[in-house]
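Students often ask why we bother encoding 3D structure as a string. The short answer is that it lets us treat folding as translation between two languages. Here is a chain of 487 residues written in the first language.
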Amino acid sequence: MINEKCIMIIFGGTGDLAHRKLVPAIYNMHLSGQLPESFALLGTGRKQKSHKQYRHELAVSAKKYSSQSFKEKQWETLAGNIYYHDIDLQDNTGYQRLKETLKALSPGTNSEGNILYYLALAPQLFSPVSTNLKRNKLNASPYGWRRLLIEKPFGYNLASARELNTVITEAFSEENIYRIDHYLGKEMLQNILVLRFVNCIFEPLWNNNYIDNIQITASETDGIGTRGRYYDLSGAMRDMVQSHLFQMLALTAIEPPAQSDPHSVHMEKLNLLKTIQLWPDSPIEEKIVFGQYNNFRAEQGVSPDSKTETFSALKLTIDNDRWRGVPVYLRTGKNLGEKIAKIVIQFKVPSNIDSHILPGSSLADRSDLPNLLTLKVQPREGVVFQFNIKKPATMGEIVPVEMDFCQPCAFLINTPEAYERLLTDAIMGDKTRFTGWNEIECAWSIVDNIYQEYNKAGAYLHQYEPGSNGPQAAIDMLSRDNRRWWE
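And here it is in the second language, the structure alphabet:
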């Protein structure tokens, strides 16, 4: 338990993110003793409602979405410190009343303590809320820290991201701004650096001498649901590649940080992102595939002539000594056949395997015999390593086999959900699992350049069937390289 006072304010406390993710995470933290000893939660919304009504609504969500069983007594203890405050977030005058509410939650002179502001809001509200907090002197205090948590999307492109960053850095210092990419809170992503640097069998091979290609997939079986208006302005590249997939790639490919502190990790991720570019000297269709699932244009809030991609596959290169020449394939999309996030490291097949090593062996097709290291991020976290053996009772038939580490199976515990980890880190002041502004700026620069090349070439938007693996063109992109997606 953290031994300090903390008030967490969820701007957008009646929204989907608060009900499905944040409140269940806070409830789980309460059960495991990870909340501060003195903790209060204040949810905001436009509608008027009582504290009792708000607590009841959150209890329903905690029962439905928490990974832990609901315990009435423990919930009542937490609910006694949950409050509701109605406010029009774009009206500056309402923040003085918010200030009075905060004082009432912290009785005593100058005893506000620490405040965590969570913007669980539509992106267009990020700027006015940050500005109004500053105008009403709610952005800093000599009696405790004030930290701002912002959910993606952080901008729509490089220009809008810079504009937003200017506004929030005028209201809060950089050290108190926590930009959330919830993938960074996932247990398996936290394990990538440990897997590489604590096991000496991997790091010596983690380069272009031994690795043939890197594949990163984040596929979703759901469509866009009620997010049509947002998604039609965003698309797969802005929604997933700019944030989640680039962060997964950065953690996979970075150089060893000088130290384990947040600054060193962020600097190495930034250095890696600066080297990412589209595969050079090849036609656009061989390195960019955008797709749209059938009937996307009929979804609520979507333009009937929408050109927005719901699927994106890219062939990239990392232009540094470690990775030069190794293709990186990224793939993400909506309405696909499987919900999964994973990283596949495909190692090269040795060129000197022949009959004098294994008499009687037949290796006419070496493409099916690479070593594969698969890092499963979701839904089942774990690591699978594929290697080759001689099939028993044969003269020389070589077959692939797997060593499969299932993280929840091995430890028989419910590992912290991403939001539990990120909220704990924010309260503790640990920014390791948060995205730095320079990383976001660099990622947007890459995405803007990709869109520029795509639009300049007048590339084709491929249609695909819901429930499939995406457009055939994405499969062809690897086939041209004599490779395939590892499903």
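Translate back mentally: Residues 230 and 301 are 8 Å apart (CA to CA). Keep this in mind for the problem set.
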